[in-house]
Design brief:
Elements (H helix, E strand, L loop, with lengths): L1 H8 L1 H14 L9 H20 L3 H15 L7 H24 L1
Helix pairs in contact: 1-2, 3-4, 4-5
Length: 103
């Protein structure tokens, strides 16, 4: 919830909050709620893709990197499917943006 509130206020503030949370390794604890971790994965992924669409490639990569990092600690049965979808979308999207830049 803190991340969403910070995003509504300021993208860089949200990134700082997320970075702090990741540095604290709170999500690595076995009792960390998986629904909250999934929420963070989705929020960071969506923010990364939004940055890509806004021609902020480096910010987009940073947000997506956090999403993939968080996914490593997701312990639900759909983890493999989610990772596959994210990998495929990331490859497609990053290739598309490189092609646009080269044109």
């Amino acid at each position: 919830m803190v991340i969403s509130t910070a995003l509504a206020y300021d993208q860089s503030e949200a990134f700082d909050c997320l970075e702090w949370m990741i540095n604290q390794r709170l999500y690595q604890k076995h009792n960390y709620p998986q629904n909250e971790l999934y929420y963070l994965i989705v929020v960071t992924w969506n923010e990364g893709i939004t940055c890509y669409f806004g021609n902020q490639k480096l910010k987009g990569e940073a947000w997506c990197k956090y999403s993939f990092s968080l996914l490593n600690y997701y312990r639900q049965e759909n983890k493999a499917q989610l990772k596959e979808q994210m990998d495929k979308a990331y490859r497609m999207f990053s290739t598309q943006k490189e092609t646009e830049t080269d044109a």
